Amino acid sequence: MFSAAAALCNSALEQGMRRPANARPASAASPTEGTLASAAASGDEPCSGVVATARSTRRGAIRILGGDNLGWLEALATDGVKVELAYLDPPFFTQRSFHRTARARDAVTGEVSRVVTLAFEDKWSSLEAYLAALEARVVRVRDLLTSDGSIVVHVDPTTSHYVKVMLDRVFGRECFASEIVWRYRRWPAKTPNFQRVHDVLLRYVRDAGEPPRFVQQYEPLAPSTRATWGDTKQLASFGRDGRRVRSTRTEVRSPGVPLGDVWEIGVIAPIAKERTGYPTQKPEALLRRLIEACTYPGDTVLDPYLGSGTTLAVAAALGRDGIGIDASEEALSVAAARLDGVAERLGLERR
Ligand SMILES: C[S@@+](CC[C@H](N)C(=O)[O-])C[C@H]1O[C@@H](n2cnc3c(N)ncnc32)[C@H](O)[C@@H]1O
User: What is the DSSP pairing of strand 55-59 with strand 96-105?
Assistant: First the structure.
C-alpha cells in the first residue's frame, strides 16, 4: 500500500511533506489523548501511542521526519538513500507510558510550573507483537545500509536475547559484530536483586564479506600500566623459546588501549546542558563513540527512533549527515528545538 503511494512521488523526501501510510493527522490522535493509535497499514502494533503529522524539515544535511518510521523507511529506500550507520533506540517493552516534564514560567505572574506531556507509549499485547514490529523496521533499515555499513540496536536485558535472535535471523549470524554493554551508575532501586545498571547495544554489519567501516577508538591506559610504563607504547618481547618476556619501553606515545565492549558512561546529570527533559534521552558521549567508530566525516547516520534528537545533534557536530524519524509530536518538537541550537552554532541552513 505504501509502495504504491510512493510510486506517485518522484522523490518523497525532496517533496518532504508526504504522509506515510500509517501516519495519522495530529487531530486523529493527539499526544495528549494518549491513545494507542493503530499503525494499521502495516498490520502491526504501534511502537508508539502517539502518531505525529507526517512532515520533513532540514538543517543543512540533517533531516527530521515526522510520522511512523515504517512508512518513512520505505520512502527512503524508494529514494535510493544509503546510510553508513543506523542507530535504533526503540521503546524497551516496559509496558509503560513515558512523559516529559518541562518547566514553564507564567508570562504574567512569573510563576514557574511543571508541564507534563505524554511523549510516547510503550505498551504491547505480547513480546511477540513487540518483536514483530521491531523486525519489520530492522528489515527495512538493513536495505538502507551501505555494504560496509552497520546497525546498532539499543535495548536492555528485558528483550536483548530475543532481539539478538531476531537480528541473527535478519542479518545472518556471521554479521554479528559486537554486544556493547553500556554500564551506568544510578540511584539504587529498592529490590531484592542485583541492581540493573546496564543496557545492551547489538551491532551487526550489513555484509560480513566486506572490510568493515571501523575507526579504532581508544580508552586511557590502566593506572597500573601508566605507573610502570608511563604514557609510551610497550614493545612485546619474546624469549628464544617463543614465550613472552618483559616488554621493552619505547619513546612513542601510546594512544591508549583499544576500546573494549563494556562502556562506562554516566547517565545525563539533572543539571547537564544537554538534558532536554525527554524521557529515555541517551547521553551524547555514547553516540559520539558509536558515530566516531562506525562512520567517517561526510557519512550519513540514520536514527528511526529519534526521541530528543541526540543522534542528530552528535552527527551534526561531528560533520556527518543525519536522518531522524519519530512519531511523537513531543519528540519532534524537542528534537527540532535542539537541532535549531546546533544549526545556529554550526551555521547550518534551516529549511
Ligand atoms: C527510547 S526513545 C528514543 C530516545 C532517543 N535515543 C534520545 O536520546 O532521546 C524511543 C522513541 O521512538 C519513538 N517511536 C516509537 N515507535 C515509533 C515508530 N513506530 N515510528 C517512529 N517513532 C517511534 C518514540 O516516540 C520515542 O521518541
Answer: unpaired
User: Does residue 254 or residue 23 have the better pLDDT?
Assistant: 254
Residues 171 and 52 in one domain: yes
Find the domain containing 248 and state its range: 218-258
**Same domain (yes/no): 126, 228:** no
Q: How many CA atoms lie within 13 A of 299 on its CB side?
A: 24
Backbone angles phi, psi at 333, to 5 degrees: -75, -40
Q: Model confidence over 231-261: pLDDT tens digits?
A: 887 777 788 888 887 777 777 888 889 999 9
Ligand 1 centre to CA of 307 (Å) is 5
Q: What angle do CA 321, 327, 331 make, to 5 degrees?
A: 70
The model's pTM is 0.85
Q: Are residues 226 and 341 in the same domain?
A: no
Does the CB atom of residue 307 touch ligand 1 within 6 A? Answer: yes
Any atom of ligand 1 within 6 Å of the Cβ of 331: yes
Whether residue 241 sits in one domain with residue 183 = no
